[in-house]
Amino acid sequence: MGHLHRGGVLAAVLTLLLTTAAPAPAAAADRYRNPVSAGFADTFADPAVVRGDDGLWYAFGTSDPLRVGERQAHRVPIARSADLVDWTYVGDAFAPDQRPSFAAPGAAFWAPDVRRVAGRWVMYVTVTDTTVSGDTFDTAIGAATAPTPAGPWTFADTPVVAPRPGGGGGYLWTIDPSQFTDSDGRSYLY
């Protein structure tokens, strides 16, 4: 009988715990706010942030629609801030028809990495589809330059890292570039 009593007590405790559990957590949108893009976008993926020569901060995002329901992707949206708190959308780095010569017409530009290199601004960016093959995901790393972080941005006609065929067919993912300059002055692209 003692065994049954302990089982009954355990069941009662479990029932009590389950019925008095904390309320369900709020939806993620209610708990978190993206401080960079909240004023102009629902999403601002893969951001890169630099300080311009004018003392303002510039943020660059992956090519995506800025708002839920928007059907057109922005081509590397740019935002600007004086204080890293309040951000304003200033436009896209690239016009809808602007792309490097090696990019397929429907290519998107992902994960921009923007740096000041030798007196000019350089953006390294994933190009999601190229004219190298019929594959729709033969990614490459492209580069564009501009006199200021706000542009105008001009693509180089050749990729910095060309699409790389995989051993079993298809292409290796060549995405998300990040430039690094070592203490000896040598530059690398990861």
TrEMBL record:
Entries under SUPFAM superfamilies matching the protein: Arabinanase/levansucrase/invertase (SSF75005)
Signal peptide residues on this chain, from the entry's feature table: 1-26
Gene3D superfamilies recorded: Glycosyl hydrolase domain, family 43 (2.115.10.20)
InterPro entries hit by this protein: Glyco_hydro_43, Glyco_hydro_beta-prop_sf, Glycosyl_Hydrlase_43
Keywords linked to the UniProt accession: Glycosidase, Hydrolase, Signal
Family, as annotated: Belongs to the glycosyl hydrolase 43 family.
Full protein name: Family 43 glycosylhydrolase
